[in-house]
Amino acid sequence: MIHEQTIRSAVEASGVGLHSGAPVSMRILPAPSGSGIVFRRTDLEGFEIEAIGPNVARVSYATSLMKKGVFISTTEHVLSAFIGLGIDNAIVELDNLEVPILDGSAQPFVEMIQKAGIRKQRRPRKYLKIRRELEWREGNKFIAVYPADGYSVSYSINFPHPLIGKETFQVELSNGSYLRQIAAARTFGSREDEQAMRNMGLIRGASRENCIVLSRDGVENGPLRFPDEFVRHKVLDLVGDLALLGKQILGKVVADRAGHAMHTALVSRILRDQSLWEEVTVSGSEPEGAVASVSQAAAAAPS
Ligand SMILES: [Zn+2]
């Protein structure tokens, strides 16, 4: 049986928020079985916000959670790292409203978790296994989820830039492929859009150290970590947003030019319609990275 996991010891990092530009210190702490991922604002008397769909607040260029008027912004990269490493339970303490952007990818969070170590817990992990397909389109954007035994993602983007254009990336998130192919892909933005975004109060913390900066016809701060780093980062974001299901998913997700708004809408549609999925436990050895490829999923008793 595959069990829940947490980290072994506390780890910390500090940096700035991508959008707020605010300095922030972060600590990741172990948490008991069944508690999920919980953000804690140490600057607000330890106020806690669970990383689950119903707490999604504002979604535009990043995903934010809100509870009783308290925000946690830009949650997607650290949540993506938790899924990638199979961490079910942890507390993420922040002394400000936004998760630090660090290098713009999930790699620094992966390294923190690896430094802390991973601990297997007593409770068998319950997966959210997709039973029926769900798909919808909004203009030229598309997102869908289909039944599958593992967790796989196929993402397409079409970005009007000579280095990007149409890119598609398909990955089975098992056997360490998240760590090798997704975790290090950085966020990106174009110099042309910079002023408009700053005028909206966004990207106040952006720098050449925490995002790929696109010039009119190239990259200002190369080299890229992957030739198709852009679409890989979209996979990273999707995995982080779907973490708000509160469980690891077993299904195939297909997205075309989607973004945080469609990712989190998928989360709420799945959570709203319980005929789309069931909870299962999975027999097999411990997963090294994200979900193991699952051949023997067994329906779990409802709890
Ligand atoms: Zn991102």
Q: Tell me how many strands there are.
A: 20
How would you state the average pLDDT, rounded?
92
Rg computed from alpha carbons, rounded to a whole number of angstroms: 18 Å
Hetero groups bound? zinc ion
Report the β-strand fraction as a percent range: 35-45%
Shape verdict:
globular
pLDDT < 50 stretches: 291-303
Note the total helix count: 6
- Give the fraction of residues assigned to helices: 10-25%
Order of helices and strands: EEEEEEEEHEHEEEEEEHEHEHEHEE
Major sheet, described briefly?
A: 8 strands, mixed
Given the helix and strand composition, which structural class is it? alpha+beta
End-to-end distance: 17 Å
Can you put this structure into words, describing what you see?
With 303 residues, the protein is an alpha+beta fold. 20% of the residues lie in helices and 36% in strands. It has 6 helices and 20 strands. The strands form 5 sheets. Strands 11, 12, 13, 14, 15, 18, 19 and 20 form an 8-stranded mixed β-sheet that branches. A 5-stranded mixed β-sheet has the order 2-3-9-4-5, covered by helices on one side. α1 packs across α2, α1 (76-85) packs across α5 and α5 (229-242) runs parallel beside α6 (260-272). The model is unreliable at 291-303 (pLDDT under 50). The structure holds zinc ion (ZN). Zinc ion (ZN) binds at residues 76-77, 187, 233, 237.
